[in-house]
Amino acid sequence: MNDLAEVKAAARKAAFARRKAAFDAAEGAGAGLLSGVLAGYRGVPLAGYMPIRTEIDPLPAMAEAAAHGPVGVPVIEGEGMPLKFSRWEPDGALRDGPFGARVPEVDDFFEPEILIVPLVAFDRNGGRLGYGGGFYDRTLELLRGKRATLAIGFAFAAQEAEGLPLEPTDQPLDIVVTEKEVIGF
């Protein structure tokens, strides 16, 4: 394992511990601020995510946005591939997808222009530490190569970190929304 990989692994471990403590203390927090940000983009194709483990829950904000335009969730098609996004409806039928995340029962793919991005840690410069698979980095690079694509990190404030071990392939966030504030870059 190279030094950067070890540094990233240590940063992830510390960030997971901070996220779990925040999740235990503030379940259900942050969706109101996220809804407020999304209200400025009514009808723009959007993708959120189905929260797993201790991720902050975007579903209330996604449900509100779904009344105005398409909302999708990520579908992992394979290792090393960009994500695809299948249309999601509140109370729609779901099936088990990879990594424990649920996906729509029937795939209805589209390309979002806004991505609500889960993360392990973020910094005040738009840096994001993900799970290490590179799915969102590949996907954002692909989408941003076609059109302006807004990346909104959604996280607990406790997930903020300094000195994240970032690489040139890491795609920056445009905004981070926490249960406490909206941070623009």
Structure write-up:
This protein is an alpha/beta fold and 185 residues long. The protein has a single domain (3-184), classed as NagB/RpiA/CoA transferase-like (Rossmann fold, 3-Layer(aba) Sandwich). Helix content is 27%, strand content 21%. The chain has 4 helices and 12 strands, in the order ααβαββββββββαβββ. The chain has helices spanning 3-26, 31-38, 59-66, 135-144; strands spanning 46-47, 71-75, 84-87, 94-96, 102-104, 109-110, 114-117, 121-122, 128-129, 150-154, 175-177, 182-184. The strands form 3 sheets. Strands 6-3-2-1-7-10-11-12 form an 8-stranded mixed beta sheet, sandwiched between helices. β4 and β5 form a beta hairpin. α2 packs parallel to α3. The longest helix is centred in the first third of the chain and has 24 residues, at 3-26. It starts with a helix and ends with a strand. 35% of the residues are buried. The mean pLDDT is 91.
Order of helices and strands: HHEHEEEEEEEEHEEE
Structural class: alpha/beta
What characterizes the major β-sheet?
8 strands, mixed
Radius of gyration based on Cα positions? 15 Å
Helix run count: 4
Helix content: 25-40%
- Give the class-level CATH name: Alpha Beta
Largest sheet, spatial ordering of strands: 6-3-2-1-7-10-11-12
Examine the coordinates and then state which fold CATH places here, giving the name of the CATH topology. Rossmann fold
CATH-level-2 architecture: 3-Layer(aba) Sandwich
Average pLDDT taken over every residue: 91
CATH superfamily: NagB/RpiA/CoA transferase-like
Please tell me what the overall shape is.
globular
Strand portion? 15-25%
Report the span from N to C terminus: 32 Å
How many strand segments?
Answer: 12
Query: Residue ranges: pLDDT <50 for 5 or more in a row?
Result: none
Number of domains: 1
